[in-house]
From TrEMBL:
Domain ABC transmembrane type-2: 29-250
Organism the protein comes from: Desulfoscipio gibsoniae DSM 7213
GO BP: any one term: lipopolysaccharide transport
GO molecular function, one term: ABC-type transporter activity
UniProt record similarity statement: Belongs to the ABC-2 integral membrane protein family.
Classification via PANTHER family: INNER MEMBRANE TRANSPORT PERMEASE, TRANSPORT PERMEASE PROTEIN
Domain of life per record: Bacteria
Protein name (record): Transport permease protein
Keywords: Cell inner membrane, Cell membrane, Membrane, Transmembrane, Transmembrane helix, Transport
Signal is among the record's keywords: no
UniProt keyword Cell membrane present: yes
Pfam families in UniProt: ABC2_membrane
Length: 258
């Protein structure tokens, strides 16, 4: 199946770009929504958590910068998973007319969210510049961490996309799970603030670890914890392989249901 995916790489990119255009072309602000949404979320939540709940993030980093950085990496994961869940059921007409590997659709849904991520990163750069901070752009650390997050997201995307074909309430369930997952991940707080007796369990929250490490590297210049990186890598590989197998196993049932 992976050979077919490589052969259809141009179609994957085309479908991803179509997803971006369809999402924004009929709106007045267009792609600017990719910037406005996370920025407004960061401002509102920053006010609530920093001024009302007195939450703190990294030392010396304004809380709005701390929170926006975490949301940027989190939204790449959450939005990808949410869109991938309906990537097959939302393209039923296309699937009935043209043959191509079905796994292309959830893959394209995840790739399309990289556009939103790129715009959010641009805003993050501007916010960092506004606060006169000095980010640490270490591609040898940040890019591998982003790649791990990408493949972890792909694996889960394949699972939810295929299950949603058989059980249409999966897409709704995914959004509910993501809401709880957000608060159980170190987005609004740092991992060190988690009570030590339960902190070890957070090592299995791969996306939470990745967001926390990417933010610490970018904003504080902390070196990556390579032990945790290895754990995240192994879990991501396992999830990606599992997602691939689940999709391949359920794919013959798609025609009957759709």
């Amino acid at each position: 199946m992976y050979k077919k995916l490589i052969l259809y790489s141009n179609l994957t990119i085309a479908l991803a770009w179509r997803d971006v255009r369809v999402r924004y072309q009929l709106s007045v602000l267009g792609l600017y929504w990719a910037i406005i949404n996370p920025l407004l979320m960061a401002i509102i939540w920053s006010f609530v958590f920093s001024y009302i709940f007195r939450a703190t993030g990294l030392n010396g980093i304004p809380y709005v910068v701390f929170l926006f950085c975490g949301l940027t990496y989190w939204n790449l994961f959450a939005n990808s998973l949410s869109n991938a869940a309906t990537s097959l059921t939302g393209n039923a007409m296309l699937l009935s007319k043209v043959y191509f590997p079905r796994i292309i659709l959830p893959t394209a849904a995840v790739i399309a969210r990289l556009v939103d991520f790129a715009f959010s990163m641009l805003v993050l750069v501007l916010i960092i510049w506004y606060y006169n901070l000095t980010p640490v752009w270490d591609p040898l650390v940040l890019l591998p961490l982003l790649a791990i997050e990408f493949f972890y997201t792909l694996g889960l995307a394949y699972i939810v996309a295929s299950l949603n074909v058989l059980y249409r309430d999966v897409a709704q369930l995914v959004n509910i799970i993501l809401m709880f997952w957000l608060y159980l991940s170190p987005i609004f707080y740092i991992l060190e603030q988690v009570p030590e007796k339960i902190r070890s369990y957070f090592a299995y929250n791969t996306i939470g670890l990745l967001v926390d490490m990417q933010r610490n590297v970018l904003l504080a210049g902390d070196g990556a914890n390579w032990h945790l990186v290895l754990i995240s890598l192994l879990i991501s590989i396992g999830v990606f392989i599992l997602g691939w197998l689940v999709f391949h196993w359920l794919e013959p049932l798609f025609a009957e249901v759709m």
